[in-house]
Design goal:
Radius of gyration: 19 Å
Number of helices: 17
CATH superfamily: P-loop containing nucleotide triphosphate hydrolases
Enzyme class: transferase
Helix content: 25-40%
GO molecular function: sulfotransferase activity
CATH architecture: 3-Layer(aba) Sandwich
Order of helices and strands: HEEHHEEHHEHHHEHEHHHEHHHHH
Protein name: Sulfotransferase
Pfam families: Sulfotransfer_1
Family: Belongs to the sulfotransferase 1 family.
């Protein structure tokens, strides 16, 4: 999953290299296949070029970090980055199109994996087309906003139909136009123990966040819902209950790990789409963790260290179920289990804590 972060101006050099300049939209025609997403060294080199070549105003490392790190505010009771909250009126008023497909997850629940699978399906298994741009441009992040920079809304408005739309919003905050236009929605949920560990490492490497403290401290904040996007429990239950009345395909990360072919077939059936067996094979290979981890269009390694420090933790870290067992103490696991039972009481939603 991937939670995108606001980008300081120095990073626009990288976006320009990928065929996108802020304020101008894609610099290549829709569907144009770029040779490759640039390496980090190319991004840095571009950032050092004269401003006349691109809309880049390099900042010092200290200024960059100060610009990136954000406090959390509250949006209708949900903890969220302040810049996202400032952009809320535009998100709330967003006009979905009937053929939009919304991909919804709680952060760190396989968002980037699902996004890559869906883009592959939309491109009929054409690997080169799926390398045309970074994943966060191919599947725009609905609520992303940073002052003076292209927002998720603006990117979506410039994206031709049919659009793939990514969000981490809880169900009660989803713009009403998605319901009014009867858009199809795919939600993917992941067990909370793995989410908590993945979110902890993401807080360390993604510089939008303040220091998350110790693993024990972060775990307490996670259980209390004092993290971006709030309570995991409320999020997964809210979308689970909504699927009783709307076009929502509810998937589980653990099922996807166990039998990705079966889950991709579920997606195809939900979309009313048929693909040849060889195309499905190609999608499964291209979206395997090993392939995505080395794919610059999917692994976020083109993002400068000022935004995401992969030396602390890779964006695509392990991609397994049950890694929490390598991090939880016995006491923490017992406390988490008790808390889980209390907050999930009365729900028919169940999670596998490992595969």
């Amino acid at each position: 999953m991937a939670l995108a972060v606001p980008l300081p101006r120095v990073f626009w050099a990288g976006l320009c290299l990928m065929g996108y300049c802020p304020g101008t939209g894609p610099s290549t025609a829709p569907g144009t296949v770029l040779a490759q997403v640039p390496s980090s060294s190319e991004v840095v080199e571009a950032a050092s070029r004269e401003e006349s070549q691109c809309c880049v105003d390099p900042l010092s490392a200290m200024e960059q970090e100060a610009e990136i790190t954000q406090e959390l505010g509250s949006l209708h009771g949900i903890p969220l980055y302040k810049s996202f909250i400032e952009g809320w009126p535009q998100v709330k008023a967003f006009q979905a199109r009937p053929d939009d497909l919304l991909l919804s997850t709680y952060p760190k629940s396989g968002t980037t994996w699902l996004s890559e699978i869906m883009d592959m399906i939309y491109q009929d298994g054409n690997v080169e087309k799926c390398r045309r741009d970074a994943i966060y441009n191919r599947v725009p992040f609905l609520e992303l906003r940073a002052p003076g920079e292209t927002s998720g809304i603006e990117l979506l408005e410039n994206t031709p139909s049919p659009r793939l739309v990514k969000t981490h919003l809880p169900v009660q905050l989803l713009p009403t136009s998605f319901w009014e236009k009867d858009c199809k929605i795919i939600y993917m949920a992941r067990n909370p123990k793995d989410v908590a560990i993945s979110y902890y490492y993401f807080h360390q490497m993604a510089k939008i966040h303040h220091d998350p403290g110790t693993k024990a401290e972060f775990l307490e904040n996670f259980m209390a819902g004092k993290v971006p996007y709030g309570s995991w429990y409320d999020h997964v239950r809210g979308w689970w209950e909504k699927k009783q009345e709307k076009k929502i395909l509810y998937l589980f990360y653990e099922d996807m790990k166990k039998d990705p072919r079966r889950e991709v077939q579920k997606i195809l059936q939900f979309l009313g789409k048929e693909l040849a067996e060889g195309t499905v094979d190609r999608i499964l290979h291209h979206t395997s963790f090993q392939e995505m981890k080395k794919n610059p269009a999917a692994n976020y390694e083109t993002v400068l260290p000022a935004l995401m420090d992969h030396s602390i933790s890779p964006f695509l870290r392990k991609g397994i179920s049950g890694d929490w067992k390598n991090h939880f103490t016995v006491a923490q696991n017992e406390r988490f289990d008790q808390h889980y039972q209390e907050l999930m009481a009365g729900s028919d939603l169940h999670f596998q804590m490992e595969v």
